[in-house]
Protein backbone atom coordinates (compact mmCIF):
# COMPACT_ATOMS: atom_id res chain seq x y z
CA UNK A 1 0.00 0.00 0.00
CA UNK A 2 2.84 2.39 0.79
CA UNK A 3 4.17 2.00 -2.75
CA UNK A 4 0.83 3.15 -4.15
CA UNK A 5 1.09 6.55 -2.42
CA UNK A 6 3.42 9.01 -4.12
CA UNK A 7 2.79 12.12 -2.03
CA UNK A 8 1.15 12.95 1.29
CA UNK A 9 -1.87 14.63 -0.29
CA UNK A 10 -5.02 12.51 -0.69
CA UNK A 11 -3.47 9.07 -0.02
CA UNK A 12 -6.79 7.19 -0.25
CA UNK A 13 -7.52 8.69 -3.67
CA UNK A 14 -4.01 7.70 -4.87
CA UNK A 15 -4.42 4.10 -3.66
CA UNK A 16 -7.78 3.81 -5.43
CA UNK A 17 -6.27 5.22 -8.62
CA UNK A 18 -3.31 2.78 -8.53
CA UNK A 19 -5.63 -0.20 -8.01
CA UNK A 20 -7.72 0.95 -10.97
CA UNK A 21 -4.56 1.31 -13.10
CA UNK A 22 -3.49 -2.24 -12.23
CA UNK A 23 -6.85 -3.67 -13.25
CA UNK A 24 -6.69 -2.08 -16.69
CA UNK A 25 -2.99 -2.68 -17.32
CA UNK A 26 -1.99 -3.51 -20.93
CA UNK A 27 -0.39 -6.75 -19.73
CA UNK A 28 -3.75 -8.08 -18.57
CA UNK A 29 -5.43 -7.00 -21.82
CA UNK A 30 -2.75 -8.83 -23.81
CA UNK A 31 -3.57 -12.12 -22.09
CA UNK A 32 -7.25 -11.87 -23.00
CA UNK A 33 -6.69 -11.00 -26.64
CA UNK A 34 -6.26 -13.77 -29.20
CA UNK A 35 -4.32 -12.87 -32.31
CA UNK A 36 -4.91 -14.18 -35.79
CA UNK A 37 -1.53 -13.35 -37.31
CA UNK A 38 0.26 -16.00 -39.39
CA UNK A 39 2.70 -16.81 -36.61
CA UNK A 40 -0.17 -17.87 -34.33
CA UNK A 41 -1.78 -20.26 -36.79
CA UNK A 42 0.65 -23.21 -36.69
CA UNK A 43 -0.41 -26.54 -35.22
CA UNK A 44 0.55 -30.22 -35.27
CA UNK A 45 -1.87 -32.96 -36.28
CA UNK A 46 -0.34 -36.31 -35.30
CA UNK A 47 2.90 -36.12 -37.35
CA UNK A 48 1.59 -33.67 -39.94
CA UNK A 49 2.22 -29.95 -39.65
CA UNK A 50 -0.78 -27.72 -40.18
CA UNK A 51 -1.37 -24.00 -40.52
CA UNK A 52 -4.80 -22.41 -40.54
CA UNK A 53 -5.12 -20.43 -43.74
CA UNK A 54 -8.51 -18.89 -43.08
CA UNK A 55 -10.34 -18.20 -39.82
CA UNK A 56 -13.63 -18.95 -41.56
CA UNK A 57 -15.30 -22.06 -40.19
CA UNK A 58 -17.63 -24.39 -42.07
CA UNK A 59 -19.62 -26.85 -39.95
CA UNK A 60 -17.06 -26.65 -37.13
CA UNK A 61 -14.10 -27.15 -39.47
CA UNK A 62 -11.29 -24.77 -40.44
CA UNK A 63 -9.38 -24.62 -43.72
CA UNK A 64 -5.76 -25.71 -43.20
CA UNK A 65 -2.63 -26.22 -45.26
CA UNK A 66 -1.40 -29.64 -44.16
CA UNK A 67 2.27 -30.58 -44.64
CA UNK A 68 3.00 -34.27 -45.36
CA UNK A 69 6.00 -36.65 -45.11
CA UNK A 70 7.90 -35.26 -42.12
CA UNK A 71 11.69 -35.40 -42.07
CA UNK A 72 13.80 -35.34 -38.89
CA UNK A 73 15.66 -32.14 -38.14
CA UNK A 74 18.24 -34.13 -36.15
CA UNK A 75 18.81 -37.75 -35.08
CA UNK A 76 21.53 -37.24 -32.44
CA UNK A 77 21.32 -37.37 -29.36
CA UNK A 78 17.69 -38.38 -29.98
CA UNK A 79 15.31 -38.34 -32.91
CA UNK A 80 13.75 -34.88 -33.38
CA UNK A 81 10.26 -36.44 -33.60
CA UNK A 82 10.54 -37.41 -29.91
CA UNK A 83 10.60 -33.74 -28.91
CA UNK A 84 8.06 -32.60 -31.50
CA UNK A 85 10.35 -31.10 -34.16
CA UNK A 86 9.46 -31.88 -37.78
CA UNK A 87 10.83 -30.67 -41.14
CA UNK A 88 8.62 -30.63 -44.24
CA UNK A 89 9.13 -29.89 -47.90
CA UNK A 90 6.89 -26.94 -48.84
CA UNK A 91 5.84 -28.68 -52.05
CA UNK A 92 4.27 -31.63 -50.23
CA UNK A 93 1.11 -29.99 -48.93
CA UNK A 94 -2.62 -30.24 -49.34
CA UNK A 95 -5.56 -28.05 -48.37
CA UNK A 96 -8.09 -29.77 -46.10
CA UNK A 97 -11.01 -28.92 -43.87
CA UNK A 98 -10.02 -30.07 -40.38
CA UNK A 99 -12.41 -30.31 -37.39
CA UNK A 100 -11.64 -27.49 -34.94
CA UNK A 101 -11.22 -29.93 -32.02
CA UNK A 102 -8.33 -31.69 -33.83
CA UNK A 103 -6.45 -28.40 -34.19
CA UNK A 104 -5.26 -28.16 -30.60
CA UNK A 105 -1.52 -28.80 -30.35
CA UNK A 106 0.09 -25.41 -30.98
CA UNK A 107 3.43 -25.20 -32.75
CA UNK A 108 6.05 -22.73 -33.92
CA UNK A 109 6.50 -22.57 -37.69
CA UNK A 110 9.87 -21.52 -39.13
CA UNK A 111 10.34 -20.98 -42.87
CA UNK A 112 13.75 -21.59 -44.43
CA UNK A 113 14.17 -22.03 -48.16
CA UNK A 114 12.16 -24.90 -49.61
CA UNK A 115 11.50 -26.41 -46.19
CA UNK A 116 9.46 -25.46 -43.17
CA UNK A 117 10.03 -26.59 -39.57
CA UNK A 118 7.27 -27.14 -37.02
CA UNK A 119 8.27 -27.23 -33.36
CA UNK A 120 5.64 -28.36 -30.87
CA UNK A 121 4.94 -26.00 -27.98
CA UNK A 122 5.22 -28.47 -25.14
CA UNK A 123 3.98 -26.31 -22.26
CA UNK A 124 1.06 -23.92 -22.43
CA UNK A 125 -0.61 -21.81 -19.74
UniProtKB/TrEMBL annotation:
Q: Where is the composition biased (Basic residues)?
A: 1-16
According to the UniProt entry, which residue ranges have a biased composition of type Basic and acidic residues?
17-33
Segments for region (Disordered)? 1-33
Q: What is this protein called?
A: Uncharacterized protein
Source organism of the structure: Culter alburnus
